[in-house]
DNA sequence: ATTAGGG
DNA sequence: CCCTAAT
């Protein structure tokens, strides 16, 4: 039964009972208030995973802008590799005048990766071409200068089945059923970089991922779950978690989602004195004057976040590899753009030449550049009320000259709750396996029936977490004060009309947690603190409306009795 | 489609 | 947040 306590504790001043106020649904068993999402402060120990975004395609086709000096096979996806960017000295077609780093540099590389994923990843039946375990070590010690570390933060957990009873099918049959891949970076940890869709996307042929129609199908409890989940639903879980963990996972068929990949990747690089070409641009006009001097950059490695792998002993090595592969390939898939910082300043103008930007072989003090991978789809924005949010711009970037700083900034960032990330050496981080080429064994539904729905299931994902701001809470409280609880649709219309990402269910849920928050001690609260004043109003309103509902219930009850009693008497008389 | 509540 | 039951 509903407790009357609150009624006694709070006054009703200022509240008006709308004529249409509804009585609470029959007294459902009311459990203790929802437990605040309690995510441990999972640590995010990044592991150095040498990523081979290799692919000839990626690193330059004919012109081969970059060369992978690790001798990586093209079909390798992950492995510590070193990529060296070199500008041909006397090649045919000097790769266009190199005017901008982003367009013809890493950016294209990374994006190209997605385009060739099919070829590069699934085509690698000869997975052995990619050696595992080479990461962590400098492949080419001799090469000094530019080193770039791609550092991805998402804390991913790969869980392959688990329970002892689960029997993992022999590898090679593609029946990877018991797989879980989820992110430990659940809930709280995404807070800083939520990126609600700002601009409406053009009509899409497929329901957007945020669509409840799709999400509905998905299980929920597994998001936070760990290895304990296994068995039959594992396949689905895998995909769920997978999607969750990697919002950037390629969604070629389903358009992008507003979710941004909150975790950025970083690139550390060092400028290297380049070789001067024999004015290959000669005669092409003054425009290219600055292009005859080349800058060499070398991507030493890509850092990938730690991958936790939990897998039953009975699972096959192949299945394990596959999982890691999936995770990594997703990371590298797409949805990112490259950011560039020169001497601490972000370079936004893609049309500037390197020289104009200060990236010059003659610039001695410019010994480092900062690259970052950022969500490319949208301008991040914290709230609808903060249209000008430029979270992206604030993404911490790594600086080649100061690893400590790098780690520190990461450490300090709310984005990275981990307290140990980055402190590990590359070698330490390398404990995670490096998958071999992706064969045709990617996890599949036990039986494919309705391709369509299944496709949707695969791409559907949990909505990103979007903590309510104080302003939003304020609006919510005000609306509830006015409208009461139980009229969430009205609340939505009244106070969150323009906040597409706030459904009335969200508001209802938020109110629920607000009430809970208000009842617990400040020490137990988490997240952005809500002003006590607001919480007081929450309790007040909650108490008031609860009381109203109670009264309404009683009145209806008495009415019922008045109607029922006579009938009962009449029945007795018969 | 909404609402209430449990997970 | 998600999901379901009940409206």
Automatic annotation (TrEMBL):
**What would you give as a GO molecular function for this chain, any one?**
telomeric DNA binding
* Region ranges (Disordered): 440-466
Which Gene3D superfamilies does the entry mention? 1.10.246.220, Phosphatidylinositol 3-kinase Catalytic Subunit, Chain A, domain 1 (3.10.20.90)
- By what name is this protein known? Myb-like domain-containing protein
Myb-like domain location? 464-517
Entry keywords, A to Z: DNA-binding
InterPro entries to which the protein is assigned, alphabetical: Homeodomain-like_sf, SANT/Myb, TPR1-6-like_ubiquitin, TRP_plant, Ubiquitin-like_domsf
């Amino acid at each position: 039964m509903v407790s009357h306590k609150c009624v006694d504790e709070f006054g009703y001043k200022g509240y008006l009972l709308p004529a249409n106020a509804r009585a609470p649904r029959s007294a459902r068993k009311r459990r203790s208030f929802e437990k605040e999402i309690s995510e441990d402060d999972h640590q995010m120990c990044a592991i150095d995973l040498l990523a081979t975004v290799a692919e000839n395609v990626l690193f330059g086709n004919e012109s081969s802008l970059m060369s992978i000096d690790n001798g990586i096979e093209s079909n390798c996806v992950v492995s510590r590799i070193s990529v060296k960017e070199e500008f041909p000295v006397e090649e045919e077609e000097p790769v266009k005048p190199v005017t901008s780093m982003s367009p013809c540099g890493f950016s294209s590389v990374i994006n190209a990766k997605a385009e060739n994923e099919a070829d590069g990843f699934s085509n690698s039946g000869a997975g052995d071409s990619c050696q595992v375990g080479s990461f962590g070590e400098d492949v080419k010690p001799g090469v000094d200068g530019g080193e770039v570390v791609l550092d991805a933060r998402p804390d991913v957990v790969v869980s392959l089945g688990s329970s002892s009873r689960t029997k993992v099918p022999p590898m090679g049959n593609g029946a990877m059923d018991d797989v879980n891949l989820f992110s430990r970076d659940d809930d709280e940890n995404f807070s800083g970089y939520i990126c609600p869709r700002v601009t409406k996307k053009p009509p899409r042929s497929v329901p957007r991922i945020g669509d409840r129609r799709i999400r509905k199908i998905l299980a929920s409890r597994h998001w936070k779950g760990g290895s304990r989940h296994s068995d039959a639903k594992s396949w689905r879980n895998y995909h769920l978690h997978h999607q969750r963990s990697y919002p950037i996972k390629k969604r070629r068929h389903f358009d992008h989602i507003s979710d941004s990949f909150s975790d950025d990747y970083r690139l550390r690089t060092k400028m290297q004195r380049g070789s001067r070409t024999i004015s290959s641009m000669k005669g092409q006009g003054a425009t290219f004057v600055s292009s005859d001097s080349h800058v060499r950059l070398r991507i030493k490695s890509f850092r990938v976040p730690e991958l936790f792998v939990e897998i039953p002993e009975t699972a096959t090595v192949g299945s394990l590899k596959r999982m890691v592969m999936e995770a990594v390939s997703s990371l590298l898939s797409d949805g990112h753009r490259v950011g560039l910082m020169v001497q601490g300043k972000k370079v936004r103008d893609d049309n500037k030449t390197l020289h104009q930007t200060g990236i010059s072989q003659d610039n001695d003090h410019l010994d480092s550049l900062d690259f970052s991978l950022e969500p490319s789809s949208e301008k991040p924005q914290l709230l609808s009320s903060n249209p000008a949010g430029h979270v992206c711009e604030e993404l911490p970037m790594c600086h080649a000259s100061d690893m400590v700083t790098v780690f520190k900034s990461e450490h300090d960032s709310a984005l990275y709750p981990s307290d140990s990330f980055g402190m590990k050496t590359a070698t330490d981080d390398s404990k995670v396996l490096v998958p071999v080429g992706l064969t045709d064994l990617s996890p599949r539904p036990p039986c494919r029936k309705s391709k369509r729905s299944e496709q949707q299931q695969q791409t559907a994902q949990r909505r990103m977490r979007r903590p309510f701001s104080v302003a939003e809470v304020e609006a919510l409280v005000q609306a509830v004060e006015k409208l009461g609880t139980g009229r969430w649709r009205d609340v939505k219309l009244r106070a969150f009309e323009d906040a597409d990402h706030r459904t009335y269910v969200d508001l209802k849920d938020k109110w629920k947690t607000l009430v809970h928050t208000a009842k617990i001690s400040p020490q137990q609260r988490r997240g952005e603190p809500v002003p006590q004043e607001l919480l007081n109003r929450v309790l007040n309103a909650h108490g008031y409306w609860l009381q109203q509902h109670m009264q309404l219930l009683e009145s209806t009850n008495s009415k019922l009795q008045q109607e029922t009693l006579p009938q009962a008497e009449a029945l007795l008389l018969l």
